[in-house]
User: Which sequence fits this backbone?
């Protein structure tokens, strides 16, 4: 069942999620690491992973309830999707760094 808090959390994740494809496309085309912080990517990725862990702890916290009722899976989907996009950004960072080293 959809509750307001989970709905608002999902909207937040969707808003963040719209920025990642733009960022990934820009980094891919730029073929450069200029202006990109891998530490920033890693901190954002850690944040999404902690969000996923928080959702999974609800399963343990609400153990008597059926597992499928304890986690709002539609919110978890957006955490995972965003984490995958940030991970792609990290991969592109290292690809671009290798391209820069090869060009130097």
Assistant:
């Amino acid at each position: 069942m959809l509750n307001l808090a989970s709905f608002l959390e999902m909207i937040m994740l969707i808003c963040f999620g719209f920025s990642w494809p733009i960022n990934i496309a820009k980094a891919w085309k730029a073929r450069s690491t200029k202006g990109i912080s891998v530490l920033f990517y890693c901190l954002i990725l850690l944040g999404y992973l902690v969000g996923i862990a928080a959702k999974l702890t609800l399963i343990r916290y609400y153990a008597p309830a059926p597992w499928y009722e304890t986690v709002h899976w539609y919110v978890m989907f957006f955490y995972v999707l965003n984490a995958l996009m940030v991970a792609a950004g990290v991969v592109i960072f290292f690809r671009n760094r290798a391209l820069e080293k090869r060009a130097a």
User: Anything to note?
Assistant: The chain has a mean pLDDT of 88. Residues 24 and 85 are 8 Å apart (CA to CA). Residues 4-103 form a domain with the Monooxygenase fold (CATH 1.20.1280). The longest helix spans residues 73-103.
